[in-house]
Amino acid sequence: MSLHTFYKYQGAGNDFIIIDNRDLKFTENNPQKIAQLCDRRFGIGADGLMLLQSSKGSDFEMVYYNADGNIGSMCGNGGRCIVAFAKDQGIISGNTTFLAVDGIHDASIDQAGTWVSLKMNDVNNIDTDGDAYVLDTGSPHYVKIVSHLETLDVATEGASIRNQDTYRKAGINVNFTSPEDNGYFVRTFERGVEDETLACGTGVTAVALAMAKHNQQQGDIETPIRALGGNLLIRFHANNNHYSNIFLEGPAKFVFKGTIDLS
User: Fold this and answer.
1) Which residues carry the site feature described as Could be important to modulate the pK values of the two catalytic cysteine residues (predicted)?
2) Residues 186-216: tens digit of each pLDDT
């Protein structure tokens, strides 16, 4: 029997399995096994799995797996959740620097340990595909403005775009958005999950930047975004087609912990 303690966290409904792997006892490099852990009927259930590991140049390293069991690109809400986990474990206090697949990230967490601000990497270009925008915010994203977003079949429409010849091999996350109050409503189809998720951190970041380009906004910008699982805030500076000082902010909460046999 090979028992491992796991923790479940969620950020705006984006949920993750987190394992403290500083002792490197979790050696599972089996996509099928990780996919089973993320399965909502035969496993713990999650949008992804993260390992917190030691890092010489920062407070910790975040290793992220998609729900299909494959190693993933940067996950914004996952990054915020692992910061909350690190605080709960006493690894960090209020501010932190950690290593992810796309490099070093700075983050901060409030005293209550539930609101996390995560600095994302700069974005130096936003391309177009017809009337949609395409950019990389740590993961590749497709952003399309639509009407009647509440009733849109995101799973079907998102899968259709994600599997176009242009995007099929590498995959792309597909975000549909519409203006709402002083911000935007966003629904996302995520590659690796291959379905709609309740929120996507790199996705809402991509939407905020794309809408700044769409509206020809410049300077310091704050964009509130509502996802199905909760509210998020993106702050950044726009200078022509260059976007810097990008922060993804929102809730990150502990759900439960348990043990599972991985033998």
Assistant:
1) 141, 190
2) 999 999 999 999 999 999 999 999 999 999 9
Cβ atoms within 10 Å of 230's Cβ, excluding its own? 18
Per-residue model confidence as pLDDT tens digits over 41-50: 999 999 999 9
Chain-centre distance for alpha carbon 230: 13
Domain that holds residue 31: 3-119+252-261
**pLDDT number for residue 182:** 92
The per-residue pLDDT for 28 is: 67
The pLDDT > 70 percentage for the chain reads 99
Phi and psi angles of residue 31, each rounded to the nearest 5 degrees, phi first? -55, -35
pTM above 0.90, yes or no: yes
Q: Is 205 left (phi over 0), alpha (psi -120 to 50) or beta?
A: alpha
105 and 18 in a single domain? The answer is yes
Say how far apart CA 215 and CA 30 lie, in whole Å. Answer: 45
Binding annotation for substrate: 14, 66, 76-77, 173, 190-191, 201-202
Catalytic residues, which ones?
75, 200
For the chain, the domain total comes to: 2
Q: Residue 93's domain is classified under what CATH number?
A: 3.10.310.10
Q: What radius of gyration, in Å, describes the C-alpha atoms of the chain? A: 18
33-37 CB contacts, 8 Å cutoff, 24+ apart: 33/69, 33/262, 34/65, 34/69, 35/67, 35/68, 35/69, 36/69, 37/6, 37/260
Q: Are residues 85 and 159 in the same domain?
A: no
